[in-house]
Amino acid sequence: MKKSSSSTKARKRPRAKFPLGLSGPSAETATSDRILISAAHLFATHGFANTSMPAIAKQSGITPGAIYRHFESKAQLLVEVVRYALATLPTSVRVLEPAQLEASDLPEFAASYTTPGYKLIRQLSLEIHAAGSRARDAMALLSKVNEESARVVSRSISAAQSSGTLDRNLDPYFAAIFFQVTIMGLAHLDTLQPDLIGNHGWHDFILDRLSAVLGFPRPALAPDDHDAGLSDSAEFDSD
Predict the structure, then answer these.
(1) Which sequence spans correspond to the domains of the chain?
(2) What tens digit of pLDDT does each residue of 75-98 get?
(3) Which CATH number is 73-226's, of 3.30.70, 2.60.120, 1.10.1740, 1.10.357?
(4) What is the pLDDT of residues 186-236, one digit of tens each?
(5) b or e along 178-217 (b: 16 or more beta carbons within 10 Å of the residue's beta carbon)?
């Protein structure tokens, strides 16, 4: 019996987790990092405008006065949270390590934003972009990273075209921008279509459509997708 090719391997459904550093501060975490992690959580769940420095200090386990020894203002803290988030969110991990980015990973990567485990990531992605409009330094940092991200994704697509796995007529840069815009759109799921979060059918739709746009073969479904008890409304595990 011949083994199936890599393009037709059954994919496994992701059990999405928060990226390292966004799951909550521990007692062993350095004070400045605890502040950043706490601020990221509070900015994501309550918004930048509704989060106070004393609230961040309390969640970080320090006194309100102590927080100013690390960050002189909430505006400065926002810039550092943006920098921290960009270094820990999955998109930025790939950008910081471009050698690990393969174009074939892009559809599943975007589809992961439909899973329950990415809720904090979706919320923080939206908040840092919204809050960036209030802080010039944060917006400059976001713009720089977004542009670099587009270039890295574009290069991965170009590499796939050179190897013959993608349509050479596809504009790599436009495809990279489309990928970024798709992810930002999926970040709005919690307010636009919360019932679709964790929905297998929606996950597969995103996976299939992005694969089609990029010119990859339609992904094969994992065997458990065909189990009698699984419907399009089935949800991902959230743990």
Answers:
(1) 73-226
(2) 788 778 777 766 665 554 445 455
(3) 1.10.357
(4) 999 999 999 999 999 999 999 999 999 888 876 665 554 433 333 343 333
(5) ebeebbeebbebeeeeeebbbbbebbbebbeebbeebbbe
